[in-house]
Design goal:
Number of helices: 12
Helix content: 40-55%
Largest sheet: 8 strands, parallel, barrel
Structural class: alpha/beta
């Protein structure tokens, strides 16, 4: 497995990060344990989750994904120091329970640690920008947690280039640790928010990048080609927006590359991300061992310059 440095965090990760948003949603506890065992057995080492996963599911309270990961860690299939755990803070967990104020971060991290059944979090992310809280306050809270050994590294999600630069300036001015990782939405279809100034900033500042919605909620697996394909599926509402001319153009390009390589659409879509110089690793999920196989194969797939160009043009 070709490992990759995650920016300046000191963490080294495998080229695919497992997306834990499915735990407690489309994957129950038993299924989640089996998939995590197989993922780590294949040589991967990083799981991404958030305190809010999967609060959107009727009957769930939030923290469901972290709880499943915590129970899995406790089983000891993988030693704690061999697993890199990423989680996030800031999304609403209940009335008055959201944002990036120091007091809330210091409380929320304790809740996450308890659910994860661990003494430390490898990478802690600000989930969303909080316009009501100065960067200095949030970064100061993370600095305290690093000093206490409760987190190892700090990053952010969903910041644009202006916001990320402002956070870097604030960290420099306050003399505290900056955000060393960015988690943006980025895939073959959704490109405009990351490509350009934001990607350039990450490259210039050596900020690690782990992309979410890397398979566009499953659309880039190629299994959703008509509205009828989405009906009754858990991701129906999320996938519908991709069924337009651009989406169909991308699927056609994926089909072409698939015929040339023998790889599936999902494998190709992830390999495309892995060959983007600003990307450290895409986040992707699986709810079966068959789906997990695509993640494993994508890490071993190299696309030709011609294939990359075809895919770039299709999703431009």
């Amino acid at each position: 497995m070709q490992m990759r440095k995650l920016g300046k965090t000191g963490l080294t990760i495998a080229p695919i990060v497992f997306g834990g948003n499915v735990f407690g949603w489309t994957a129950d506890e038993r299924t989640s344990f089996g998939i995590l065992d197989a993922f780590f057995d294949a040589g991967f080492n990083t799981i991404d989750t958030a305190d809010v996963y999967s609060r959107w599911v009727p009957g769930n309270k939030g923290g469901d994904s972290e709880e499943i990961i915590g129970k899995w860690l406790k089983q000891g299939h993988v030693a704690r120091d061999k697993a890199i755990i990423i989680t996030k803070v800031g999304s609403e967990m209940g009335p008055g329970m959201k944002g990036l104020k120091e007091s809330y971060i210091l409380k929320a991290v304790e809740d996450s640690l308890k659910r994860l059944q661990t003494d430390y979090i490898d990478l802690y992310l600000s989930h969303w920008p909080d316009p009501e809280t100065p960067h200095e306050e949030s970064l100061g809270a993370y600095a305290k947690l690093r000093q206490q050994g409760k987190i190892r590294a700090v990053g952010c999600s969903n910041l644009d280039a202006t916001q990320l630069q402002a956070s870097l300036d604030a960290a420099d001015k306050a003399g505290v640790q900056r955000y060393d990782v960015l988690q943006p939405e980025y895939n073959l279809y959704d490109r405009s928010s990351f490509e350009g100034p934001l990607a350039d900033l990450c490259l210039r500042e050596d900020i690690g990048v782990i992309t979410y919605f890397s398979l566009a909620s499953g659309f880039l697996s190629g299994k959703y080609r008509t509205k009828a394909d989405t009906e009754g599926k858990a991701r129906q509402d999320r996938v519908a927006k991709y069924l337009d001319d651009k989406g169909l153009r991308i699927l056609s390009a994926l089909d072409t590359v698939s015929k040339e390589t023998g790889a599936t659409a999902a494998e190709i879509s992830l390999a495309w991300l892995l060959q983007k110089k600003a990307v450290t690793a895409p986040i992707a999920s699986a709810t079966s061992l068959a789906q997990l196989e695509a993640l494993v194969k994508s890490a071993q797939l190299t696309l030709s310059p011609e294939a990359m160009s075809l895919l770039d043009k299709a999703g431009a």
